[in-house]
TrEMBL record:
InterPro entries found in the cross-reference section: Mpv17_PMP22
Keywords of the record: Membrane, Transmembrane, Transmembrane helix
Transmembrane parts of this sequence: 58-77, 97-115, 160-177
Protein's UniProt keywords contain Membrane: yes
Pfam families, per database record: Mpv17_PMP22
Family: Belongs to the peroxisomal membrane protein PXMP2/4 family.
Membrane topology: Multi-pass membrane protein
Identification of the protein by name: Mpv17-like protein
Cellular compartment(s): Membrane
GO cellular component: membrane; mitochondrion
């Protein structure tokens, strides 16, 4: 039974790679926001301070995680893997530097700006200005080791799912940063 399910999942990813990645990545990102809200609104507070889950926020993360990020990541990793083939140290270093210093800054800016726009903030750039540098610094500490493992051990077809799994952890960090007053 498990083998049949595994084969069916592989077939879906092969036949519909962007859609499959979008569903998995979106589920993980929305799940990370749900986890973060559960912790901050239900578990780490006194009974009298508990709040309802913010469904609007879950919807915003679902949009980012299903419609925006997985499509960019799918195209990016497909290009990166075709341009830099193999797992030689020099190749891995090139991929890491490109991923962290070319792709990550625009993705982080997009995160803060698009989320601010969906939240209806008057100045959609303000949060990005305040939080971009500390977020990028934190992302270097998290993503450089995670992506090293990705580029060495993960087959190209599984890159977006691997990144989505890591992103579940990363989004918990990012959501925490977003909630901070910098």
């Amino acid at each position: 039974m498990a083998t049949r399910i595994s084969m069916a999942v592989k077939a879906l990813f092969k036949k519909y790679p962007m859609a499959s990645n979008a569903v998995v990545y979106g589920t993980l990102i929305t799940g990370a926001e749900f986890t973060q809200q559960t912790m901050t609104k239900k578990i780490l507070v006194k009974d009298s301070e508990r709040e309802q889950i913010d469904k609007g926020s879950l919807g915003r993360y679902a949009i980012m995680g299903t419609l925006i990020y997985p499509n960019i990541l799918y195209i990016w990793y497909r290009w990166l893997d075709r341009r830099y083939v193999g797992t030689a140290t020099k190749t891995i270093v090139k991929k890491l530097l490109l991923d962290q210093f070319v792709l990550t800054p625009p993705l982080l800016c997009a995160f803060f700006i698009i989320m601010s726009a969906m939240e209806g903030k008057a100045d959609i750039l303000e949060e990005c200005r305040r939080k971009m540098v500390p977020t990028f610094q934190t992302s270097c500490m998290f993503w450089l080791p995670a992506q090293t493992l990705n580029f060495i051990f993960v087959p190209p077809v599984a890159r977006v799912v691997y990144v989505g799994t890591c992103a579940f952890i990363w989004i918990n960090i990012l959501v925490w940063i977003k909630r901070q007053k910098y």
